[in-house]
């Protein structure tokens, strides 16, 4: 996945995120900046298993949300998503 693909995937998966930039990588502890719904924040890739799962944490100020996705192989739609607000 290239930087543009990662940005597109996160923006498409997480409600309220319209754009993503400065993606450092999908590996654990990779980070990104995002904006949407009049807010700006940061995010971190917690876990990524290609074609299996993705877990990220987004943050605005002290507000952190955890987002987990079960992925399907290329060409298939996303299987499911779960968001935990902390």
Short description:
This protein has one helix at 3-13, and strands spanning 19-21, 31-36, 39-49, 53-60, 63-70, 80-85. With 86 residues, the protein is mainly beta.
Characterization of this structure:
The protein is mostly beta strands. The protein has one domain (3-85). It is built from one helix and six strands, in the order αββββββ. The protein has one helix spanning 3-13, and strands at 19-21, 31-36, 39-49, 53-60, 63-70, 80-85. Strand 3 (39-49) and strand 4 form a beta hairpin. The termini are far apart.
Compute the number of structural domains: 1
Strand order of the largest sheet: 1-2-3-4-5-6
Query: N-to-C SSE series?
Result: HEEEEEE
Helix fraction bin: 10-25%
**Poorly predicted ranges:** none
**Residue fraction in strands:** over 45%
Structural class: mainly beta
Distance between the amino and carboxyl termini: 29 Å
Compute the number of strand runs. 6
How many helices? The count is 1
The biggest beta sheet reads:
6 strands, antiparallel
Average of the residue pLDDT scores: 80
Radius of gyration using CA atoms only: 12 Å
Morphology call:
globular
Set out the fold topology:
Blueprint: H1 3-13, E1 19-21, E2 31-36, E3 39-49, E4 53-60, E5 63-70, E6 80-85
Antiparallel strand pairs: 1-2, 2-3, 3-4, 4-5, 5-6
Keywords:
about 90 residues; globular; 1 helix
């Amino acid at each position: 996945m290239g930087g543009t693909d990662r940005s597109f995937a996160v923006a498409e998966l997480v409600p309220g995120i319209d754009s993503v930039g400065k993606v450092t990588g999908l590996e654990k502890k990779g980070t990104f900046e995002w904006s949407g719904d009049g807010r700006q924040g940061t995010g971190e890739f917690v876990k990524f298993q290609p074609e299996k799962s993705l877990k990220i944490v987004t943050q605005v100020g002290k507000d952190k949300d955890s987002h987990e996705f079960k992925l399907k192989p290329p060409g298939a739609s996303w299987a499911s998503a779960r968001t935990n607000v902390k």
